[in-house]
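tool=predict chain=A
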Amino acid sequence: MQGLFQAICIHGNVLKYTILKHVRVIAPAARSVVFSRSESISASKLEEHGFESTKIADVLNAKGKGADGSWLWCSTDDTVYDAVKSMTQHNVGALVVLKPGADEAIAGIITERDYLRKIIVQGRSSKSTKVGDIMTEENKLITVTPDTKVLKAMQLMTDNRIRHIPVIDDKKMVGMVSIGDVVRAVVREHREELNRLNAFIQGGY
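tool=predict ok
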């Protein structure tokens, strides 16, 4: 996953260089002018609209309300059994834990490790133990906000080797994004930047 993040970053930096290098309709003397001009564009408008500025809010909007990842969290009042069952059904290793009520305030996270160490090893019953009794506290949870840049979220996920990351706004849970969501957003922005550069080159000369 770390290699994927590095590859995307490197690809983003060389994308415009590759395009300009292979534009055969431009004379060599003019190519350096276009190159300089494109650098100016990429530092302003291309960056303004490119993957460097794409935010997690954009990813959530693209996913839609029905795909907000609500199946990746549970309540402190749920039993550990139900939480582990949900993990198994959705093939994930952790669930975000919310406090009871309509405010959807985040309380922590329950992981497979919590289950093994605090239920199996200690001989406790998963059906009678509440998630809130064994969860990892909120201060150990890695989160992002709707304003977090996509590349920053990708770096957090790769550095910490996690596939899903909660999105928190004003201490409330507003969604969940996966590494797949983030990669798709970056790829989409690469394509749009490619189209903008081609349009700039063809329109400018």
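The two ends are 40 Å apart (CA to CA). Strands lie at 73-75, 94-98, 106-111, 136-137, 164-169, 172-178.
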